[in-house]
Amino acid sequence: MSVHTILLDFSMDPARLGDENGQKTVFNQLETVLKEYVPNLLLTADIKVDGGSLKILTGKKGAIVSVRLFDRGLVTVNIEYYKEDCEDPLISFKSAKILESQMKKYIVALNSQALTPIKRCLFGRYYPTSDERLLEYDIDEVLFDEQSPFQKIKIVHSKSLGNMLVLDDLQNISEADLIYTETLMQRGKENYEGKEIVILGGGDGALLYELLKEKPKYVWMLEIDEVVMKACNKYMKSICGDVLEQRKGPNYEIIVEDCMLTVKRFMQEGRKVDYIFGDLTDIPISDADCGELWEFMINILDAAFKILKTTGKFMTHGNGATSIDSLEMYEQVLMKMEPAVVFHKTKAFVPSFLEDWIFYQISFKGNDVE
Amino acid sequence: MSVHTILLDFSMDPARLGDENGQKTVFNQLETVLKEYVPNLLLTADIKVDGGSLKILTGKKGAIVSVRLFDRGLVTVNIEYYKEDCEDPLISFKSAKILESQMKKYIVALNSQALTPIKRCLFGRYYPTSDERLLEYDIDEVLFDEQSPFQKIKIVHSKSLGNMLVLDDLQNISEADLIYTETLMQRGKENYEGKEIVILGGGDGALLYELLKEKPKYVWMLEIDEVVMKACNKYMKSICGDVLEQRKGPNYEIIVEDCMLTVKRFMQEGRKVDYIFGDLTDIPISDADCGELWEFMINILDAAFKILKTTGKFMTHGNGATSIDSLEMYEQVLMKMEPAVVFHKTKAFVPSFLEDWIFYQISFKGNDVE
Q1: What is the pLDDT of residues B25-49, one digit of tens each?
Q2: Is A126 on the interface with B (CB under 8 A)?
Q3: So what's the ipTM on this one?
């Protein structure tokens, strides 16, 4: 079951919507067309609002049509109704487009658009890009849904991407995202053989799985959330193999606690490694209201560099390529670090994000080989 | 200027929305939270509808909140308001997510989601996938907007894709889509040197431009719509170079008329070519209401094969990889053709479609080399 919401927009000469009469005329024209699409349509409320008016029509089976006329020359039409999964839609996308073009002609609009019907159902199909654009995914099933002490964890199935991990309502990694892990680790450009590596986070297991193929000396994966690993071990085997089956292997260990505890222990022991991966929270999108997140990130970065060999590298994901402000803020943070660091950037299109993503490779100044 | 529509969904135990009192209680809880986000909120209409109820609240600056409570256990909240480009949003996506989680807690919902605010402005940012999912593009400008005798032609600018041709409100090709043309022509797998080629359609010029790099003997491009070529020649130079500057070059000709006329002339003259490209309308998504489109496509296919050498190939784009029914119908058409043909398929992710696309390579049975 789901609720379908159909959104239609029209722009027109503001002079035609400037007074009550004008708005009434346009509304009547729209109503004439609407009546052919929604049976038994009746005007139920007519409300004067700041900057325009709102008319509510109700129709068969509880269908509701809201027509909002804005003095400034815009008209929005929202059609909303309940649909059982087995029922045909009252208005398909094809019908919505015909409805839109008929209405456009009737009211002589300058411009118009019909959005594909929005399906508001029991599981989310909609996720944002890094720059807060709306994307509808072809999700047809929720496989896992649990609130851990740290985050909301979902695994959903997408027809085109396979299973997909969703953390706090953000798409995280899917079975189609090998490129994400390979870009993060710069496969083919870095040599991990015989190296010591720390992963901060990485609970989906994909990075650990891919790194172990490169014959490292030892990998410590520091993940706080047991539930993520449980979910991925069950539903994301194609990206993490068997590495999450047990906490320890011949050349790796998964330590389930706040990663800072292990980092501090390494500091006390004077232990330094060749590579550190930052596979934790994304860089905050903007600084507003995100003070804590930025501080958290800077603290981690500072601590991580203290357990990194002078020839070592810190590898991490950045943000969407269109989130320029956020990327710049991150680079400012890097440029202020002590001791000084230099960084390289790599861009890759991540299938489940449906956008280009930026990855950083950071090393101590004077030690960058490239 | 634009109208922002914020959509929030909640699902809950239907028993709690089963009668008027239950719906009132839930609504009051929602109203309490909403009042913190939308100033001066007042209940303006309370409408009993089939299967539930609808409450309309109006707030400061003409903001409207519609709360729809469905007996079946769903609640939808739509917030709509007018925003000048220079104004801050009344409710950002971040605020919407906080609002959603507060409301979810208050009404003890089972599930909830907040969509990124929908921006309903003078130019469309929203386009569908082949399986009618909604995608919001990072479009910030309309460069060209004209209705030709054949179609509605727009060129818009996307921050991540560059300029993008939009025909009848469907994304067609962008400056980031070289892979589309290269997959269509199977660059590196087919040898066009010294070959005679017909392009059916191809008004954006990209295919002609790329083919000419391969030193063909002669290319006839048969495009009906002069306006598409005018627009692309001005705004899509990076994909079509100078090929649309004039109608004739040393080894090509653009014939501006219904492509069937030239195909018939070739038939009468007994002229046959090595390659034909179908770069016209997409395969219809379903057969419902699309009889004419299918018939058009079959006629073209039939005629094209009559001017193709027995060793020749017909190359065309199919549909989105998730539109399985439509692809199957197309293959059924191919399988019934006389003389018999065989086909190969290639899949490529097309950046501006944000989905995998299927391309067909068709040849006469007994003459497929692979």
Answers
A1: 999 999 999 999 998 999 999 999 9
A2: yes
A3: 0.92
